[in-house]
Design goal:
6-stranded antiparallel sheet, 13 strands, 200 residues, 2 helices, 20% helix, alpha+beta, 4-stranded antiparallel sheet, elongated
Length: 200
Amino acid sequence: MTELIAGESPVVRVAETWFHPQGGGQKSDRGTIGPARVLRVAHNGGMVDHFVDSLAGLSVGGTYGFAVDSAWRRLNSVYHSSGHLIAGLVESLQHGLTAVAGHQWPGEARVEFEGQAEASSFDGLATELSRRLGELLSKPVEVKVTGDPYSSRAIQIGDFPPIPCGGTHVRALSEISVVRVLSIKRKGSRVRVAYDALPP
């Protein structure tokens, strides 16, 4: 434990952590460090800040047990992998669209695409996307981590192309119960696919 920062949002600062910091469109892990509840985690230069409910019982240089909230990580992993799956499927169904951004927060998840859509209406795309999602979730499709974890980490779902990513993911699509396409619409120059997802 490198530094303790008091204030309205107390911070435990460390050089390395098992908690996933917020970033890449994914919410951070939460859990506990010693007696403190970890509410949010963020990168801070070369360090990692853990925003906690209290610094009571903690001291710089101390060694403490930690626990990551496994259910919360699983839910965020399901949303993150679902976003990658949607990106691959939409690109394969609409060759003029390329995924450029993802926001995989539960309750407000979306994937955004740029390019020329082949269809003027997205009703058919929504129907076909939902059908293909159902098909893939019923198969034993592996989600693999490829590349070097520090310089070229990527995620590959089945035969879809790898996508650079440092977030957490499921190990197989069987760990996702359902992915629902909520809407497909234009937002400025982009096409936005909103969705939700659930673990088994």
